[in-house]
Amino acid sequence: MAAALGTDFIGRKGALFGLALRLSILTVVTLGFYRFWMKTRLRRWYWSAIRPGGHPLEYTGDPLEKLLGFLIAVVFLSFYIGVFNLILMFFSFSYLGDNFVAYAASFVIVIPFIFFAQYRARRYMLARTRWRGIRFGLEPGAWGYAWRAMVYWALTIVTLGALWPLMTFRLEKFRTDRTWFGSARLHQGGRWTALILPALPALLCLWGTLGLGLVAAVTEDPTPVLGLVLTLPLLGIAWVHYRLRALRYLTETKRLGEDVGLTLHPRLGRVLAITVFGHLLVGLFLGLLLGGVGIAVGILLGIGAAGGVDFEALPPWVFVVAGMVAYFGGFILWDVLRQVFVRMPLLAHYVATLEIDNAHALAPLAQRERDDFADAGGFAEALDVGAAL
Amino acid sequence: MIGPDAPVFVDYFDGRSAVPRRMELTIDGTRLLLIPAEGSTIVWPLDRMRRLPDQAGSDGLTLAPADGGPARLYIPDGAADLADALRAAIPARAAPPPIPNFRARLVGLSAAALTSVALILFVLVPLMADQLATLLPPEGEAALGDATLEQIRSALDESGRDGLDFCTAAPGRAALGRMTDRLAKHTEFPFPLKVHVLDHEMVNAFALPGGHVVLFRGLIDAANDPDEVAAVLAHEMGHVAGRDATRGALRSAGSIGILGLIFGDFAGGTVALFLANQLIEAQYSQATEERADAYGIALMQKAGLPPEALGRFFETLRQQEGARDERSLLDHLSSHPALLDRIEAAGRAARPAQVSPVLNSSDWQALRAICR
């Protein structure tokens, strides 16, 4: 068997910080309009940093396509959401005298669109991704995916999570079996039962948490709720453990064409460490930056006051503008720093553990046609459920 | 002649197969020559090439045909001189759009999309809200009002207890009851009118669905005489008569979701969403405030009270405005845009033939002490 192709991640934090900061500022200044360009350019950057076998991925998505798709989706969804929310609110007021049910129901009516949007977004993302000049692709099937996702979610909720592995496997199989690289189709092998054992710790923590809540509710004694201090962090860790094990299994059991295999082995300790320390770093930098700005403003105000400037006499818009700058600045920095200290290191870790086995079997595969589909992931953009990177 | 002396080997992909072809790259004037180990040389003119934009690598770069063709050329890391020369000669650019008339189509579709959204937001949703508000059963509306009142009480409570206190001193309640009755005799509402005083220094009053009218202590403190309080009460009764609060709640239910779609979740986008909704609401409130003023003035006339008391109260408000903080000023501007016009309109209203005081002086003192 030929040697496996490893994958490098060559992105650097400084470069990403500069790019993400510039793009975020443009997005805020344009009232969110620039976000189509921002997403596209960040994706180009991330894709180009991922190099299986030394050759970078390429993202060829077009911000104008995204904008157009977004506008098409907004027209459709405005009508749907506006009219439905109004009617829901009417019935909720009429018969229940409260608006909580309407808010819950207004979320429920968009659920099918969320799954629909996720599949469409993935299709656009794959259709606009190339490696070695060859396009990826995903066959149409968003409605089929949406109803299956709803059925599996319902099963999962009814069984209190016991069928979560079934959902994970079947939905991944649906997506994978419709994915292509050039003229070669990806195939998901394996069985869903292999995911039961990895899911067990998370399920036990989930049931423990639900049990504590139930006991507290039945006995009307809040003491058991203290147990959540233990079960909730454990649930979080067990959840990440399941995600990683499932990802690893589902990757190992994929086949591209006849012979090309994949392996991915992200480590739980590493993922948890990046998440925890990454967020600590974000907090630290944000604190230092905002604290520094605060002190600088304080000093300036002090100098101004000493120099006889009467701040009370300043027009009110000065304070409004200063407040807006501080508010949006805080949000932007939080987002950009999280990208630099959490998302990029996580992605780098995942990518570095990806190997392509038997890569010489890629030789016979050929290019595929361009997928010109209309909405360019616009529904995902409008509902804000775009597959994160 | 640009380029290094030592030969540089690059990976070339022809855009048809995923197999890399190793080529020796040389720059010949304005052309790139790609020389394979065997087979014929490929020639790429520099002015018909583009660099991929927004790339993560610092030295290596990826070249592609400027016309959007699928072939790719990867210049590896480590050939810094060559990479610099190519960076200088070839622009970083995304592939051109493959759809013909892409930009014209984009402009057309964008205009159509924005028109549709505007029609939904400004015509369809308000129209439906107005229609549905008239169909809402009174019990449902009353229950909605109860729920909203509770939400407002807890939102305004800064001490974190179980909501802002109602002011219930018995003599004050009795005086308020007399004032309410005097006005309510001339109205017909599908539900009983419920007037509350909340213990908060804000100079404000509002009407909620289902016949709730709320006055803040700050408003009673700011009023110079009981007629001014009665005028505000009459104005709020105008909102009750117009079911303005119910229509507003339904309208927001429709429009908030749509605005959320448009603004997305860019950093702090919730603020933009909130402001946009305020702007839309302000449009309606200008009209509804005028209607409520007219209703209030007519009601004062019917009840034998001086209608210009509303104008006097606005005048007091206007003079206090300077001393008030930023936010309340902006808030006020948004929903009450033409205070001076309203003062004038109230001043122009005819006094009824017979005017008698709404409260005697001991009742007025009791009302002012309702929160103690």
Describe this structure in words.
The complex is a heterodimer of chains A (389) and B (372). With 389 residues, chain A is α+β, with helices and mostly antiparallel strands. Chain A has a domain at 13-45 and 267-352. In chain A, 65% of the residues lie in helices and 10% in strands. Chain A contains twelve helices and ten strands. Chain A has helices at 13-29, 35-49, 63-96, 100-108, 111-127, 142-158, 164-176, 196-219, 228-252, 268-306, 316-352, 378-383; strands spanning 7-9, 50-52, 57-59, 129-131, 134-138, 179-181, 184-188, 254-256, 260-264, 354-357. In chain A, the strands form two sheets. Chain A has an eight-stranded antiparallel beta sheet. In chain A, strands 1-2 form a two-stranded antiparallel ribbon. In chain A, a hairpin with a 2-residue loop joins β4 and β5 (134-138). In chain A, α6 packs antiparallel against α7 (164-176) and α8 packs antiparallel against α9. Chain B has 372 residues and is an alpha+beta fold. Chain B folds into two domains: 8-89, Pleckstrin-homology domain (PH domain)/Phosphotyrosine-binding domain (PTB) (PH-domain like), CATH 2.30.29.30; 121-368, no CATH class. Helices cover 53% and strands 13% of the residues of chain B. Chain B is built from twelve helices and ten strands. In chain B, the strands form two sheets. A seven-stranded antiparallel beta sheet of chain B has the order 4-3-2-1-7-6-5, with helices on one face. In chain B, a hairpin with a 6-residue loop joins β6 and β7 (72-75). In chain B, α9 runs antiparallel to α11. The longest helix of chain B is centred in the N-terminal third of the chain and has 34 residues, at 102-135. Classes of the chains: A alpha+beta (389), B alpha+beta (372). The interface between A and B is large, with 82 and 80 residues.
